[in-house]
Amino acid sequence: EIVLTQSPGTLSLSPGERATLSCRASQSVTNTYLAWYQQKPGQAPRLLIYGASNRATGIPDRFSGSGSGTDFTLTISSLEPEDFAVYCCQQYGTSPWTFGQGTKVEIK
Amino acid sequence: QITLKESGPTLVKPTQTLTLTCTFSGFSLSTRGVGVGWIRQPPGKALEWLALIYWDDDKRYSPSLKSSLTITKDTSKNQVVLTMTNLDPVDTATYYCAHRLIRLPFDYWGQGTLVTVSS
């Protein structure tokens, strides 16, 4: 199975700052089928990005995704107060579909 | 508007069987390309995909849990049922069901249901 490793584990930033999150796959992700989710405490994950770089419906344009092959990045251009959460990546190109362990973006 | 909701027991004893039901609305599981999956998340840990069923009754399972999982659908009731046998305390987690279209990720999720495995 494809193992997804996210870094850093925790990102301490202030509102207005730029956040850059990494997701590295143990093997190439088929068709760039890589998604990013946001999860807040007690809530279900919310789809942000699919196909590595496509924003899901209703997602603000401060969220952007990039990458291909085994290296992917989620960028939040300017953090809003509601963006402090856990972010995880998922590959859905090869079964079993797998998730990364998550990156927590916390207020500095 | 697509919604999903999980239901089932909150407490299960070790070695028992867990049956979870996902009741959904806003889509049909008889529509080509549609799937419903189950994902779980132990407290403080990462998400883990468990199983998925497609509109054509194609079923996929996590290899590590395949021997203990069964997923079925009832299209007329808009429900998907996950059965997990021989539970262990490590199976304590929030269990989510989620909608996906083929070649796309899980885009709509239920609120999740916490299942505790303890004697």
Helix count of chain A equals 0
Task: Kindly report the greatest chain-chain contact and the residue count on each side.
Answer: A-B, 23 and 23 residues
Tally the helices of chain B: what do you get? 0
Q: Which structural category fits the helices and strands of chain B?
A: mainly beta
Question: Which percent range fits the helix content of chain A?
Answer: under 10%
Q: Main β-sheet of chain A: number of strands, strand sense, barrel status?
A: 7 strands, mixed
Describe the structure.
The complex is a heterodimer of chains A (108) and B (119). Chain A is mainly beta and 108 residues long. Chain A is 0% helix and 49% strand. Chain A is globular, with a radius of gyration of 13 Å. By secondary structure, chain B is mainly β. Chain B is 0% helix and 53% strand. Chain B has no helices and 11 strands. In chain B, the strands form 2 sheets. In chain B, strands 2, 4, 5, 6, 9, 10 and 11 form a 7-stranded mixed beta sheet that branches. A 4-stranded antiparallel beta sheet of chain B has the order 1-3-8-7, with no helix packed on it. In chain B, strand 5 and strand 6 form a beta hairpin. Chain B is globular. Chain B starts with a strand and ends with a strand. The mean pLDDT of chain B is 97. The interface between A and B is medium-sized, with 23 and 23 residues.
Compile the SSE list and pairings.
The complex is a heterodimer of chains A (108) and B (119).
Chain A: E1 4-7, E2 10-13, E3 19-25, E4 34-39, E5 46-50, E6 54-55, E7 63-68, E8 71-76, E9 86-91, E10 98-99, E11 103-107
Parallel strand pairs in A: 2-11
Antiparallel strand pairs in A: 1-3, 3-8, 4-5, 4-9, 5-6, 7-8, 9-10, 9-11
Chain B: E1 3-7, E2 11-12, E3 18-25, E4 34-41, E5 48-54, E6 59-61, E7 69-74, E8 79-84, E9 93-101, E10 106-109, E11 113-117
Parallel strand pairs in B: 2-11
Antiparallel strand pairs in B: 1-3, 3-8, 4-5, 4-9, 5-6, 7-8, 9-10, 9-11
